[in-house]
Amino acid sequence: MRGSGPSPGRRAKRVTAAVVATTALALSGCGSDDEGEQSQREPTIELPDLSGESLEVGAVWTGAEQDNFVRVTDEFERRTGASVTVVPSGDNVSQFVGTKIEGGSPPDVVMVPQPGVLREFADNGWIAPLEDSTREQLDANYTEGWQQLAAGSDGDLYGVYVKAANKSLIWYNQTAFDYAGVSPPDSWDAFIDTAWTVWESGTTPVSVAGGDGWTLTDWFENIYLSQAGPEMYDQLAAHEIPWTHESVTEALTTLGELYGENRLLLGGQSGSLQTDFPTSVTNTFVNLTEPESGMVFEADFVGAVIGDNTDAEIGVDARVFPFPAVGEGAPPVVSAGDAAVAVAPDGQMSEAQEAFLTYLASTDAAAIWAEPGGFVSPNKSLEFDVYPNDVQRGIAEALIAAGDDFRFDMSDQTPAAFGGTTGQGMWQGLQNFLRDPDDIEGAQAYLESQAADAYGH
Fold first, then answer.
1. Does some domain include residue 106?
2. Residue 157 has pLDDT above 90, yes or no
3. Among residues 277, 300, 283, 279, which one has the least CA distance to residue 399?
4. Does residue 230 or residue 1 have the better pLDDT?
5. In b/e form, how buried is each residue of 57-93, taking b as 16+ CB within 10 angstroms?
6. Has residue 155 been placed in a domain?
7. pTM here?
8. 3-state class percentages of the chain: helix first, strand second, coil last, to nearest 5
9. Residue 7: its pLDDT value, please?
10. What are 290-304's pLDDT values in tens digits?
11. Given 4, 10, 95, 335, which is the most exposed site by the fewest CB atoms within 10 A?
């Protein structure tokens, strides 16, 4: 879809200022030395004796992300005597919880990545409002914006946002950029030009995780927020304007400048549709001398995949720049996160559930989670020196500095049937678009039909 791209014969062998500054970093990605540093930290909260109690916690995380969370639950076990088991929830958290409740064996706590799903849980009476001890930690450590994201339709608070994501980041392989003689771009036009220059140098520019529909929603949301602006973003998220609106047409046209050029995508469109998120990262950073791809887009948790599956050093081999501004728009600031909620169909939260949520809302848990990297906390009281390197610190500082001036992931705000389910809604609609970027009208018609069904109008 980019007619001015180079011919094959030419091919040779906001977030905020804190994030912008990371483009110049050349620092090693060394983590904390060991867990001794963790044990030396003085606890900030008291936890009850829960000997003999057990908790089952459902979470979508796997691999390094799950391992880092288990570090947090291990400390809770040590301090309370309780036993905590982490079980996989899968991508469809709503289906997971509903099935478990129907079967009479719901988890005690579940991590919910979508505010819309959290509200559905509260409306269904599946989860219990937070107790005073947890609210005290929230008031001490969280801005009002992060607290209200976990509010139900009744205005009560039901969850603790334990894990945040800065979803306006593009990670790049320094070797690929050195080969091409390019530096991080600050606009979408410059990004596309940079991609073509990387292609001419002999490296495929971008690895797109099209096999995971959620990554495609993040591409769209960043472009839409920057190009259409925050007010339109809010209206589309609430389905106050249809997906056939001209602003969506413009955003898909812009995204098509990348998706419509097979040469810019590792494996082309078909290969991208078979690439999952972890593979998109390893494609970019496993081979440091002859990288398969030069760039990969996704949130700060890319760092965990890099650390777990490659030898790349964050800040040396793997670097990051903010998602570029589109047209005359401002650089986008898209965030996401996971909220811990207490599953209690009978309406009664147990002492163990309350203690666990209070612990997760404290800096005690956040510090342990942050040490290995690949994690950002919305807890504003957490000291930045707990993060393992300056790249992670810069990303965390940017998130906290943004305060409440951000937009939450659009797909996570919508009903789960539209924004969070494999094979339908936004995930499927944007996979359809990646498969055929010329059919913008068809993609919009599908998205609007799916949205109308999910929103009930």
1. yes
2. yes
3. 300
4. 230
5. bbbbbeebbeebbeebbebbeebbebbbebeebebbb
6. yes
7. 0.76
8. 50, 15, 40
9. 33
10. 999 999 999 988 988
11. 4
